């Protein structure tokens, strides 16, 4: 059961990472199209700024879980250099706090999404995008982050490598 959960979280992190990469390329393409349109056609693309902002938010949120899995998040190593047992305890405590905060983040994004979806709210712009669409991406990204934090905590408790590329938990 534990192994299946860890395999699932690794799989969802890869999907999240892939979608974040697609959104990043889409964001870049929209900005390049905007620059081209303004420079050569003397007009702005109505959707580019709005959808680029949505895409960038998606990149940030969908990238949280994979960043945690790969150990690329910002961390303070001063406490982690005090020995393997202290490091393990601090890592577990920090991961627990992170898991609680990730759950709060998921709940907040879910509440915003649910309100927008139930009320049929739309972006007040020329494009008039239903807000539930980009907010659903935020919910998925926050959910992936919760899964990644839970998997990290489980790996730490079982003395497994919490991140890709680390050989053991106290390394």
Automatic annotation (TrEMBL):
Pfam families: DctQ. It is found in: Cell inner membrane. Part of the tripartite ATP-independent periplasmic (TRAP) transport system. The keyword Cell membrane applies. It comes from the Bacteria. The keyword Cell inner membrane applies. Belongs to the TRAP transporter small permease family. This is TRAP transporter small permease protein. The complex comprises the extracytoplasmic solute receptor protein and the two transmembrane proteins. It is a multi-pass membrane protein. Residues 28-157 form the Tripartite ATP-independent periplasmic transporters DctQ component domain. The chain crosses the membrane at residues 15-36, 48-68, 88-110, 131-151. Keywords: Cell inner membrane, Cell membrane, Membrane, Transmembrane, Transmembrane helix, Transport.
